[in-house]
Amino acid sequence: MKKLLIITLLPAFSFGMDMQEAVNVALENNLEIKQEKVNLKKAQIQLKEDKNLFMPEFFLNFSFTFQKDTPYTKIPAGVLPFPLSFKQTEKDFRYFDVGINYPIFTGFSRIEKLKISRLDIDTAKYMLSEKENHITALTKKAYLDVLMAKSLVEIYKKQLTAVEKHLERVRAFFKEGLVARIDILQTKVRLSQVKRDLRKSEGEFKIALERLKNILNVKDSFPVEPVNVNIPESLNLQSLIEKAYKNRTIIKAIDTKLEQLQGYERIERSPFLPKIFAQAKYFYTDQYPYLDPKENYAVSVGLSWKFQGIKPYYASLKVKQDYRKMRLKLQQLKNDIRFQVKAAYEKYLTARENLKVAEDSLSEAEEYYRMTVEQFNNQLATTTDVLDAESMLTAARKGKEISYYQLIKAFVDLEEAVGGSIR
Questions:
Q1: Spatial distance between the Cα atoms of 387 and 372, rounded to a whole number of angstroms
Q2: How would you write 48-66 as a 3-class SS string?
Q3: Which residue, 31, 50, 112, 423, shows the most beta carbons closer than 10 Å to its own?
Q4: CB-based contacts of 329: which residues, under 8 Å, 6+ apart?
């Protein structure tokens, strides 16, 4: 179904890919996510392997033995009235057996191993979900970087047009003797600077697009579409932290690891318990010349109980220390997530305020530029004044665009920290 989705989206790339489509492609195509999917598949195979621990063990043995001499048993005279000699075994003989072994009870180790394998699948799913959350945020931010770089290219193009237009005005004024030649040279120098800035911004746009393609694991370029993200007016920090504790699957993965360690601890203690097994087999041998019959069937039930000192006890203690370490790791993880949410929240608030300031600055810069050009046309301002006003306007435009996309990126970081949508 997912492959069908990608195939469906491919024709649309030539017309543009919006941010959600980019996320969908990344979730299907990203190489880091594919690695996590391999880990999940591996865990599923491991479960199938461990289920075979409850299956009987089949065995088949065959051997052909050659001896240099035929072994005899000799009884000297005295024990019997006469000496006696008879073959102990044949000189060359065969042995064959086939059957099954079944472990009836193994000290609960098989049951615990099966539980651990099932928990391993859960852990792999949680880690896949955590990676998808990260790649989703990474894709969105890379997409926004492309849009931001693209908007900066457009801003420099506007600046280039404005400076070229001013150069035409200056040349016209120079012909009328209203300005000096130095005004033309000054404007040409600024024009060269703008062209360099434009070329640099175009390169940064290409780099941003390549980074996005790298995340999506695609080779062909595609147009990007504008985004319209609805950001809540107000957010509650404590609610965000609680939601992060609930949503972040990395926490669930560590909880699952704790359960697995408890299972490993019980496995390490299992040697203290006896092992019960059953066996059924058919065997044949012509080793003994007087044995009759040479083939037979046997069914046996046995018990085995062995351990070396209290080694299993200390082995379980080591696992218990790993359990305590994992609990500390879980606590540290929760602290890190709380810090991540707080940091993202503060950056979000700062970005929101920066956008308001940038919008006000842009409005003032536009008005200042308009008035300066009008004064220049009336010979009340110099070329330096116009070029400075134009630089201020370009800087304000850049500031507004950068602040806008930084706000969205800060919101994306906040969603990543929380572990899901907060809209």
A1: 9
A2: HHHHHHHCCEEEEEEEEEE
A3: 112
A4: 254
d(CA 242, CA 355): 28
Task: Evaluate whether 51 touches 68 at the Cβ level (below 8 Å).
Answer: no
Partners of 199 in beta bridges? none
Pair 241, 346: CB distance under 8 Å: no
Displacement of CA 410 from its chain's centroid (Å): 21
Dist. CA 251–CA 239, nearest whole Å = 17
pLDDT in tens, 75-133: 777 666 777 777 888 889 899 999 999 999 888 899 999 999 999 999 999 999 999 99
What residue segments make up the domains of the chain, in order of their start? 2-418
Helix (H) or strand (E) holding 14: none
* Cβ neighbours of 383 (radius 10 Å): 22
Instruction: Give the closest residue to 227 by CA, choosing from 409, 358, 396.
Output: 409
96 bridge partner residues: 62, 284
Q: Where are the extended beta strands (E) located within 353-409?
A: none
d(CA 200, CA 86): 103
Which residues lie below 8 Å from residue 378, measured CB to CB, with a gap of 6+?
none
Identity of residue 269: R
Cα separation, 137 vs 125, whole angstroms: 19
What number of helices (H) and strands (E) belong to the chain?
A: 9, 6
Alpha carbon of 357 to those of 106, 345, 361: distances in Å?
Answer: 71, 19, 6
Residues of the chain short of pLDDT 70, as ranges, are: 1-15, 78-80
Nearest to 414 by CA among 356, 323, 342: 342
Angle, alpha carbons 367-369-371 (nearest 5°): 70
Are residues 100 and 279 in contact, defined by beta-carbon separation less than 8 angstroms? Answer: yes
Query: What pLDDT, on the 0 to 100 scale, is given for residue 12?
Result: 40
Alpha carbon distance 123, 250 (integer Å) = 9
Superfamily name and number for 2-418: Outer membrane efflux proteins (OEP) (1.20.1600.10)
In angstroms, the Cα distances linking 161 to 202, 291, 372 are 16, 110, 17
Rounded CA-CA distance 409/101 in Å is 62
